[in-house]
Specification:
Keywords: DNA-binding, Transcription, Transcription regulation. GO terms for molecular function: DNA-binding transcription factor activity; sequence-specific DNA binding. InterPro entries: Class_I_gatase-like, DJ-1/PfpI, Homeodomain-like_sf, HTH_AraC, HTH_AraC-typ_CS, INH-QAR. This is Transcriptional regulator FtrA. It is built from 14 helices and 10 strands. The radius of gyration is 21 Å and the shape is globular.
């Protein structure tokens, strides 16, 4: 076990309990995401890793999609102990949500439990009245329906996930992985989230604001190789100044072609991609080094600490110093 991980264990407090809902018509992929991220034993993470349970909203054997039958650990009483409740894709956007489930979610939220929905699971939160006056997202196929059915919700279109602090919503299927890793990153830090991502064999981070839809997600082979080499170069040289013209030359493309291909490959612009990667690198330095804020700004390409503080606060709702203090407070030395 890495030494740093040891310092984050044995806090004397019970580890957080994640409860995922199960029901007839359960979306098995989204359910599997919750199990994979929060429910697997991870001895490398130490003793304070998540506890996990499955709560059925109906009695007896459940029938999930794909011909799967299952029995849950318990019923809605499990929500009374949960630190976070995960709601996989609901069985149908037009299907009514049981009042007992709505009441249990409201009670859990009132006592401070976090609520996380994947894909159409947002309709359960909406039916419980927990998203009124808040921002939320869902799969692009359902955004119009969500807005029409629940006009009090500020529906955010075409993002991977929306973090409102105590309530988090994600787009379809794989975006649930991104949101779950985002939660792990919040709870245990970048190192832990990267470790889980490696086990999943996926990239460790996709910014929640990235688009859900790509016009042509698979680049031509030659262009894909060029962009792959460019991404490697940028990760190694984040501190340098980069312009569209210099990046296009590096990729061996004209500027218009480069911008189009970059957008198709990443769902964002070079400037936004660079900003996001620099913020991730800055956060890693804050968690894993004793570098000053000035040094971190210089090494991540922000030119000065004031610029770093501005973007960091916009992105993480904390200053770099506050983030470092909050992260260190979770570690038991």
């Amino acid at each position: 076990m890495p030494e740093k991980r040891k310092k984050m264990t044995n806090s004397g407090q019970p580890s957080p309990l994640v409860v995922v809902l199960a029901y007839n018509g359960l979306c098995t992929f989204e359910f599997g995401v919750a199990v994979e991220v929060f429910g697997l034993p991870r001895p490398e993470m130490g003793d304070d890793w998540y506890r996990f349970a499955v709560a059925s909203i109906e009695e007896g054997e459940l029938r999930a999609t794909g011909g799967i039958r299952m029995l849950a650990d318990g019923d809605l009483a499990l929500l009374e102990e949960a630190s976070m409740v995960v709601i996989p894709g609901w069985r149908g956007v037009e299907e009514p949500v049981p009042q007992a489930l709505c009441a249990a979610l409201r009670q859990a939220h009132q006592r401070g439990c976090r609520l996380l929905s994947i894909c159409s699971g947002v309709f359960v939160l909406a039916a419980a009245g927990l998203l009124d006056g808040r921002r939320a997202t869902t799969h692009w196929r359902y955004t119009a329906r969500l807005r029409d059915a629940f006009p009090a919700i500020s529906v955010v279109e075409d993002v991977l996930y929306q973090d409102e602090g105590d309530i988090l919503t994600s787009a379809g299927s794989a975006a649930g992985i991104d949101l779950s890793l985002h939660v792990v990153r919040r709870d245990y830090g970048t190192e832990a989230a990267n470790s889980v991502a490696r086990r999943l064999v996926i990239p460790p981070h996709r910014d929640g604001s990235q688009t859900q839809q790509f016009s042509r997600p698979v680049a031509r082979l030659r262009e894909s190789q060029r962009l792959g080499q460019l991404f490697d170069y940028l990760h190694q040289h984040l501190a340098l100044n980069h312009s569209v013209s210099s990046l296009a030359r590096k990729a061996g493309m004209g500027q218009r072609t480069f911008l189009r291909r970059f957008q198709e490959a990443t769902g964002t612009t070079p400037a936004r991609w660079l900003l996001n990667e620099r913020l991730i690198r800055a956060r890693d330095y804050l968690e894993n080094s004793r570098l000053s804020i000035d040094s971190i700004a210089e090494q991540t390409g922000f030119a000065c600490s004031a610029t770093l503080r501005h973007h960091f606060r916009q992105h993480f709702a904390l200053s770099p110093a506050q983030y470092r203090k909050q992260h260190l407070s979770r570690q038991i030395t």
